[in-house]
Amino acid sequence: PYVATTLNNLANLYRATQRMKEAGQAFDEALAIRRKLAVANPDAYLPGVANTLNNLANLYSDTQRMKEAGQAYGEALGIYRKLADANPDAYLPYVATTLNNLAILYRATQRMKESEQAFAEALAAYRKIAEANPDAYLPDVAMTLNNLANLYSATQRRKEAEQAFGEALAIYRKLAEANSDAYLPYVATTLNNLANLYRGTQRMEEAGQAYS
Questions:
Q1: Which residues contact 91 (CB under 8 A, 6 or more apart)?
Q2: CA 81, CA 94: separation in Å to the nearest integer?
Q3: Of 52, 89, 124, 126, which residue has the fewest beta carbons closer than 10 angstroms?
């Protein structure tokens, strides 16, 4: 287990320093070990399998290997769903994060329907866990709303985009009241997105206000 953990950490370091080939090799070796451990003790080691799969999927996405990224995210998601059935408090956040990653991948490869479904499911999961722990997960609710709004905007669903941007903006404003250094940039970005939407629908006065 420690060999696998260290390989996983080393792979993350390689990825951060753009040594993608070495990162892939280290992730592959970590994954093989964790799969073997999980056969004997799934309760202890399946989370590690999912973690390395998710890391590997991020690496594949970085290097434009989109098919392999989708497969790795999908397998990680299946494991996290199973773990969340038994322990939602611990693993529902991982389900939501992996869904968000998968949705971004789908959008990048023009699979808009699947992207919307994954964003929507991620949003529902984040809303659920934010009820119990808003400080930790409200930012994720806002982030996913913003992602979904951008998808709506790209597919000409302007009304839904406006609603999602508006809700994201309200959350970011609230977060910025408590921590302006962390969240005021997100207020500005969401206002800019909303202004672009207004401009695209010839609502120039509202666009001007949002840009200002």
A1: 47, 80, 83, 84
A2: 9
A3: 89
